[in-house]
Write a structure and sequence with these properties.
By secondary structure, the protein is of the alpha+beta class. It has a single domain, classed as DD-peptidase/beta-lactamase superfamily (Beta-lactamase). Helix content is 32%, strand content 15%. The strands form 2 sheets. An 8-stranded antiparallel β-sheet has the order 2-1-11-10-9-8-7-6, sandwiched between helices. The protein has a 3-stranded antiparallel β-sheet with strand order 3-5-4. Helix 2 runs parallel beside helix 6, helix 2 crosses helix 7 and helix 6 crosses helix 7. The protein is globular. The protein starts with a helix and ends with a helix. 53% of the residues are buried. The model has no long low-confidence stretch (mean pLDDT 90).
């Protein structure tokens, strides 16, 4: 597996000086931290949505929630339109909610974007009450695919409310611990950052503040180490080979019917809705996780980007191989991840 790590790292441009890389092939896996200590942790950005999707899938399987459970049943959102949005619609980005909620208190969105560009400031930071205020003020559009940070933030907090704990505790119990992500955590404020927390830089090299906030946490607030990334891709690769005769790729059509020996979180990988694209490269979505035809193969994946980090996690379920890349520079690593996945499969 060391050769596979070398090959993945060789794909990255030199500007990616601080990176976390992990690869898995069936039961074999390996990880490496380059330019940072082994225990250093990084922002994974919207790959956090993939973990929140796994949390939702686990809660579905345990019947703590249903796909048709309304947000208003779990969070204090009445009598706003968003209270009627279902968890299933949120999980597939079909809620009709905008990408971000309207700013109710604090600096305007324009001022936040300026501070992000000018000084590298964190554009988020709302607590959960602030998130709920934004949700109450949000308009709900047509039920079609529309990527929404607001929606996934609400999904994570709603599922946690159904479990009667906070989001960090719910994620730890239902996803992080079962998958063996021992050091991954949610940073709700800068005070939550651990000594090994790395601060990233923009594509051009400008230092950025950490993207923390209790409200946005389920959509982009998880941090992890290289061993955590290794545990995640290892779990994904094992799902791919579990009972692969059931359907190509080892997962059924029904997210609740995961193969024996696989955790209920794996239901998040099962695509259940379209993202609205047409043609042979059309993608479908499960609970956050995209499934796309890439370079002649079907890949299930998610990516992420914050002010200072870029991330990609992907799995070819039929082949049982998976790759994860996180860089402390906000320059996309998606292409390199897909190519690394192809190389791992063909090696």
């Amino acid at each position: 597996m060391e050769a596979a790590l070398d090959a993945a790292l060789a794909l990255l441009p030199r500007r990616h000086e601080r990176v976390w890389v992990a690869v898995a092939d069936g039961e074999r896996s390996a990880w490496r931290a380059v330019g940072v200590d082994e225990g250093a942790d990084a922002e994974i950005g919207s790959v956090s949505k993939g973990l929140t999707g796994m949390l939702y899938a686990s809660a579905l399987a345990s019947r703590d929630v249903r796909a048709d459970t309304r947000l208003g049943d779990l969070l204090d959102l009445a009598p706003s339109p968003v209270a009627e949005v279902t968890l299933g619609a949120l999980a597939t980005h079909h809620s009709g909610l905008p990408r971000l909620g309207p700013i109710v208190e604090g600096p305007s969105l324009l001022k936040r974007q300026w501070a992000l560009w000018r000084r590298g400031d964190n554009p988020y930071g709302e607590d959960i009450d602030g998130l709920l205020d934004q949700a109450r003020a949000a308009s709900v559009g047509k039920a079609k695919f529309r990527y929404s940070n607001l929606g996934f933030s609400l999904l994570g907090h709603a599922v946690a409310a159904a479990l009667d704990v906070g989001y960090p505790e719910a994620l730890r119990a239902r996803v992080l611990a079962p998958l063996g992500l021992r050091d991954a955590y949610v940073a709700r404020s800068e005070e939550d950052l651990r000594p090994g927390a790395i601060r990233g830089v923009s594509r051009g090299g400008r230092a950025h503040s950490p993207w923390v906030g209790a409200g946005i946490a389920p959509a982009g607030g998880v941090r992890m180490t290289a061993p955590d990334l290794g545990a995640l891709v290892s779990a994904l690769a094992r799902v791919g080979t579990a009972d692969a005769g059931l359907v190509p790729g080892g997962l059924p059509v029904d997210p609740l019917a995961v193969p024996p020996g696989v955790g209920p979180w794996a239901g998040a990988l099962v695509p259940t809705a379209s993202v609205g694209k047409r043609g042979p490269a059309a993608s479908r979505i499960g609970a956050a996780w995209m499934t796309s035809d890439v370079r002649g193969r079907r890949v299930t994946w998610h990516n992420g980007r914050t002010g200072g980090f870029a991330s990609f996690v992907g799995v070819d379920r039929a082949a049982g191989v998976a790759v994860g890349i996180v860089s402390a520079r906000a320059a996309g690593v998606d292409h390199h991840g897909f190519v690394a996945l192809e190389g791992l499969r063909d090696s």
